[in-house]
Design brief:
The complex is a heterodimer. Chain A is α/β, with parallel strands linked by helices. Chain A is built from 12 helices and 16 strands. Chain A folds into 2 domains: 244 residues, Thiamin diphosphate (ThDP)-binding fold, Pyr/PP domains (Rossmann fold, 3-Layer(aba) Sandwich), CATH 3.40.50.970; 129 residues, Rossmann fold (3-Layer(aba) Sandwich). The radius of gyration of chain A is 21 Å and the shape is globular. The relative contact order of chain A is 0.12. The model of chain A has no long low-confidence stretch (mean pLDDT 97). In chain B, the strands form 2 sheets. An 8-stranded mixed beta sheet of chain B has the order 2-1-3-4-8-7-9-10, sandwiched between helices. Chain B has a two-stranded antiparallel sheet with strand order 5-6. By secondary structure, chain B is α/β, with parallel strands linked by helices. Chain B contains 11 helices and 10 strands. In chain B, helix 1 packs across helix 7 and helix 3 packs parallel to helix 5. The chains are: A alpha/beta, B alpha/beta. The interface between A and B is large, with 45 and 43 residues. Strand 9 of chain A pairs parallel with strand 2 of chain B, so a sheet runs across the interface.
């Protein structure tokens, strides 16, 4: 193993290279570019055997991945924002066809107005496309989750595509120390892809992607939904296996143990902040300072977002008095997407925390220590509206 | 029924749900015969996808995949790349779609795949409108044809612009082989499709396929009308091999049947004749057909 100071984008490219996909198809878009440029260099230097298709659009990228995966090989793409939106139609098709395509989403705001900076509206808006979603806080997590996503998606009990999401610029362009295990260790953890299901093969002609009439469609949808629902156990197993194979080498570069959520200083907490992605790093610092002053506050970081780990979250928040849901996405005309999901966990519970919703960091707006402190004091003092925008 | 000189194996099974007299179904039969067993087929959303794969049934005896309306060329790109990695480049990758996918919504992706030079053949079964959704105009619909979104009316003669020349657009991508074919000439079509599949690189055949429902023609006349399109010069048959044109139909315009014969045979052009004859539109079509043939002939003579 080696420890390197790496840009998060390069850590992802490294993980993709070591996962040995047969086909990479990608279209450049800011701030995803550093990933695909690095992968292009690997191809140019013969460091990977992958066929790299320089497609004409993101729609072409995900479609080429569909074709490659349907032919029985490991395939990968990366995108964000407008690119993910352009892919949207095919995202449903890939998951419906149960093809384990893996993708990195470098979270960026959506137009209009056009904005290349970070929020999570892109992947949150794609939460219903039937893909697994995991969110990274650090460069190390980017590397680790990328390796894990292949193993999860390709598991024959899952056969569902996955996205690893990381914040554009605030994480994608950040240099941090990353532990890169040996190729041998990676190969042991992630063996070659052997397709479990039907593939395009002249020796065994099969029809993939047929029309499903009303008499069949609902059952097929149910089996797909069941698979992603059941994947929650498989994801836990893969996290466990990863924890055992790759113990922490660099302190604070990732959770001691990967689980669906990371509980940070939640012991004895009255108030918990919930968030996803790189902002958790900032929140941890604020939590530390507040704890020094005797405030009973902790952070619940979500790593797995689809499938939504309801039971894990419910258990983690047991006995907590107040919860602030911080999110970098909105549902215009409705409540915050993650806030709704956290709420629904507690609807049938007798004991439930008070819930607040804070919209933060849209279009790259800095989420500073002060803003987090403000969120904490508003939650503690029951000040402001149920949903507050932290400008 | 066997077609003389063509392989007897059928890979597109009978029992599919195409309309009576469907020209596109004839085209598929020819495509699969030309492709043979060692092939992977890619098809976009469209009539032929719907009629051939009502889950859990299928009419396909070859591996076949459908993704979306826009992306057969992109899916084919991914398949070609995967086959390369698997060391199975001997497998034919054959994509085929209607003119809706090919000329319009999937055009950008088709262009991308041709520019990248993947080794696959793309066959367009050209029935000159969006037939699956109920006969709406496409970039391939001919001038003057009535469709449900370009109906003839007091202020409309049907489609008001000429059919897109996609064949040349793809030829100018540097494709080593593009051709036009018609279901009216199955042996010629078969040979061209086979040549497209056997030629290395991205290749294209545009096969005219009568749609009795959309063209409003008698179901038993599909082949006859597809022939007439060629005999009148409306749909000339030619190949462009490594950039060089060759025409395989009468080059002498005087030997062609009148364009009117073709127009009159189809309900989609009826308004050009009834209630009164639209001389201006008919003359315009005749002129453009003549001009197009002249241009093609010049290309062929200059070996361009």
């Amino acid at each position: 193993m080696t420890k390197k100071i790496m840009e998060a984008s390069h850590a992802i490219a490294e993980a993709v290279k070591m996962a040995k996909p047969a086909v990479i198809a990608a279209y450049p878009i800011t701030p995803q570019t550093h990933i695909v440029e690095k992968l292009s260099e690997f191809v140019a230097d013969g460091e990977t055997e992958a066929e790299y298709i320089r497609v004409e659009s993101e729609f072409g990228a995900i479609s080429a991945c569909l074709g490659a995966s349907a032919t029985g090989v490991r395939s990968y793409t990366a995108t964000c924002s407008q690119g993910l939106a352009l892919m949207n139609e095919v995202l449903f098709i890939v998951s419906g066809m149960r093809l384990p395509v893996c993708m990195t989403v470098v979270n960026r705001a959506l137009s209009a107005p056009i904005n290349i900076w970070n929020d999570q509206q892109d992947s949150i808006s794609a939460r219903d496309v039937g893909w697994i979603q995991m969110y990274a806080e650090t460069s190390q997590e980017c590397y680790d989750l990328t390796l894990m996503q292949f193993k999860i998606s390709e598991d024959h009990r899952v056969l569902t595509p996955s996205m690893v999401c990381l914040d554009g610029f605030t994480l994608s362009h950040v240099y941090e120390p990353v532990d890169i295990p040996s190729q041998k260790k990676v190969d042991e953890f992630l063996p070659d892809y052997v397709p479990y299901h039907a593939i395009l093969d002249p020796e065994q002609p099969l029809t993939l992607g047929p029309i499903g009439f009303p008499s069949e469609y609902m059952e097929l949808r149910k089996s797909q939904v069941d698979a992603i629902e059941n994947s929650i156990k498989v994801i836990e197993q893969v996290y466990k296996e990863f924890n055992e194979s790759f113990p922490v080498q660099i302190k604070d570069s990732r959770p001691e143990e990967y689980l669906h959520v990371e509980e940070y200083r939640m012991e004895g907490a009255d108030i918990v902040l919930i968030a996803m992605g790189s902002v958790c790093g900032t929140i941890k610092v604020v939590v530390d300072k507040l704890r020094e002053k005797g405030e009973k506050v902790g952070l619940l970081k979500l790593i797995t977002y689809r499938p939504f780990p309801r039971e894990t979250i419910k258990k983690a928040l047991k006995g907590i008095k107040k919860v602030a849901v911080l999110e970098k996405a909105v549902s215009p005309g409705g409540d915050g997407p993650m806030y709704c999901e956290i709420s629904s966990i507690f609807y049938d519970e007798k004991e439930k925390p008070g819930l607040r919703n804070f919209i933060i960091g849209l279009g790259g707006r800095d989420v500073t220590f002060d803003r987090i402190r403000k969120i904490y004091s508003m939650t503690k003092g029951d000040k402001g509206e149920k949903q507050e925008w932290v400008f | 029924m066997a077609i003389l000189g063509l392989p007897e194996e059928e890979y597109f099974s009978y029992g599919h749900r195409a309309c009576a007299g469907c020209g596109a179904a004839i085209a598929l039969r020819l495509i699969t015969k030309a492709a043979g067993r060692n092939s992977i087929l890619v098809e976009p959303t469209g009539c032929m996808e719907v009629i051939s794969t009502p889950y859990p049934e299928t009419a396909w005896k070859l591996p076949w995949v459908h993704g979306a309306f826009e992306n057969p060329a992109s899916i084919a790109s991914g398949i070609c790349a995967a086959l390369k990695v698997k060391g199975r480049e001997d497998v034919n990758v054959v994509a085929f779609g209607g003119d809706g996918s090919t000329y319009d919504i999937g055009f950008g992706h088709l262009s991308g795949a041709f520019e990248r030079g993947h080794n696959f053949a793309y066959i367009c079964y050209d029935n000159e409108a969006y037939m699956n959704t109920g006969i709406q105009r496409s970039g391939s619909t001919p001038y003057g044809a009535a469709t449900t979104t370009s109906p003839a009316g007091k202020k409309s003669i049907g489609k008001e612009v000429w059919k897109k020349d996609l064949v040349h657009v793809l030829a100018y991508h540097g494709s080593p082989y593009v051709a036009t074919a018609s279901i009216g000439y199955p042996t010629d079509a078969y040979k061209k499709i086979k040549k497209a599949i056997e030629t290395k690189g991205p290749t294209f055949v545009n096969i005219l396929a009568t749609c009795p429902t959309g063209w409003r023609t008698p179901t038993e006349k599909s082949v006859e009308i597809a022939k007439l399109a060629v005999e009148t010069g409306v749909f000339p048959l030619y190949e462009i091999v490594d950039g060089r044109h060759s025409i395989n139909m009468p080059k002498d315009a005087s030997r062609l049947k009148p364009v009117e014969d073709y127009l009159k045979a189809q309900g989609r052009f009826r308004h050009l004749f009834k209630p009164e004859r639209n001389d201006k539109a008919i003359k315009y079509i005749e002129e453009r057909v003549k001009e197009n043939l002249h241009r093609l002939t010049q290309c062929a003579e200059k070996c361009f």
